[in-house]
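dumping this here so i dont lose it
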């Protein structure tokens, strides 16, 4: 039995993306994020749209349909979370050599960087109050 859709979760900073990837026989690449077209949801920002579509471009896949549900964080973090989820879901459908391409280019690795917590006695995570000598 061959799968035609898969559901995967991706995370980045405080963003969580749950995507459903469909690989139909025909049709163009369509990405819906929270019910809107990706271009509109990402506020017409081509850079973040390119981040979301980069796994498909790397593997030269033109027939796909993605439904993404994202919450938390900003647009950049959400785009990276969607990219990770798409890459994870593609790794189920593709051959080992293509999976290796994704791994080498860092698409299957979660970026664990997040905001550092604020410490007491400081204004921010590392910003100290101004030192007064006298």
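and the seq i came up w/
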């Amino acid at each position: 039995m061959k799968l035609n859709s898969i559901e995967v979760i991706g995370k980045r900073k405080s963003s969580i993306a749950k995507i459903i990837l469909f690989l139909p026989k025909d049709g163009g690449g369509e990405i819906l994020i929270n019910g809107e077209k990706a271009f509109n949801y990402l506020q017409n920002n081509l850079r973040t749209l390119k981040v979301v579509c980069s796994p498909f471009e790397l593997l030269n896949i033109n027939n796909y349909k993605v439904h993404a549900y994202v919450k938390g964080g900003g647009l950049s973090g959400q785009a990276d979370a969607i990219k990770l989820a798409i890459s994870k879901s593609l790794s189920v459908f593709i051959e080992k050599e293509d999976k290796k391409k994704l791994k080498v280019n860092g698409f299957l690795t979660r970026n664990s960087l997040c905001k550092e917590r604020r410490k007491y006695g400081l204004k921010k995570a590392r910003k100290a109050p101004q030192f007064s000598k006298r």
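The longest strand covers residues 5-12.
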